[in-house]
Amino acid sequence: MKKLILLAAFFTAGLIFTETKAQVKVNISFNIESQPVWGPVGYDYVQYYYMPDIDVYYYVPTQRYVYFERGRWIFSPYMPVRYRNYDLFSTYKVVINEPRAYLHHSVHVVNYQKYKGNNNKQVIIRNSSETKYVIINNKYKKENEKREREQMEKNKNKDKKPNEKSKDKHD
Prior knowledge:
This protein is α+β, with helices and mostly antiparallel strands and 171 residues long. The protein is 40% helix and 13% strand. It contains 4 helices and 5 strands. The protein has helices spanning 2-26, 105-112, 134-159, 162-170, and strands at residues 48-51, 56-59, 64-69, 72-76, 94-96. Strand 1 and strand 2 (56-59) form a beta hairpin. It is globular and about 90 Å long. The model is unreliable at 19-27 (pLDDT under 50).
């Protein structure tokens, strides 16, 4: 009888252990589709990119740039004005997966200063042929095509002669 009870206890413990193990697998996160096309390949999940050249973070889940300005951290959908024309495709990005990474900024500056000036040293998502990035690349291509069509339409309207514009309004 004691052996039967002991066997049942081991069996129950085994089920609990197996169930816990399965729960851990379920909690693994992916955010490949949220990563920008200028991000480096090789990461299924990214919280922050730190760009040592410009000392700016990019928070992937909310698509916000995080930078220190006038004594406080700024969260913005736009780059700081001084970097608006900066080429994000070529600059080196360090992946940091820790909550509120910017709070450890002084450590990151020291640890990642060696990556300053390492432009074009990473394969980026836009240039990847890996199948897991196909969705992102297709989305990027569609956005670019839409922008190009809008620009062409804008240029077409600029090229119209004044009396052609007025003729269109009366049709």
